[in-house]
Amino acid sequence: MKPTYIIATFKVLTTIGFYFLLIITTVFLFFSLMNATGSKSFNTPMFKNNNYKVMSFSESKGKTEIQYSADKQLRYQLLQNEYYVQINPSTPFGYYTMLITFIHLLLGIFTLWTFRKILKEIQLKAPFAGKIVPLLKYVAAVFITADLINVINYIIFNQYLHQQMPTMGFKLVSEIGSGFIIGSITWIIVAIFQRGVELQTENNLTV
Description:
This protein is mainly alpha-helical and 207 residues long. It has helices at 3-37, 92-121, 132-164, 178-206, and strands at residues 51-56, 67-68, 75-76, 82-86, 170-172.
């Protein structure tokens, strides 16, 4: 496939993703405000949005016996310390979880918007455009910021769980680290791209 077709395809995909995420964010904000201002019970289907997977590190919880396959080539074990907790959206901590989710959605929208601008700036005849460098820096900063938010949220969420149920030893299951890795790789790409811009500028001056 030609590079022009690849860029055109990514332009379409990022545009679709941008507007789709924009709609999802609007719908999320609408229903979150409805839940926050209402008095929803824990049996309400809307509460599925407030489910969080946690692990219990209490001494009273543990694992079942290890089971083996017939030919002993694999083994499996049922974990008894995984739970799903639900946060009441009309409580202060419910407002907090809504805010964290909303921030992540906004970061996603900003990232897709930035990618759209990058794809518009790319020119195959002169690929190293100076305008792309700050846009790539924004993308790297967003990924790192998202992971920092996850770290802070992990600490706050676990403190809240300990206050509510101290005997259960709940800890939030959260993915942390991927944002730092992607952000760092993007910063490396920025450095390489910036050098490409300098070389291209020097080449244009000599010509």
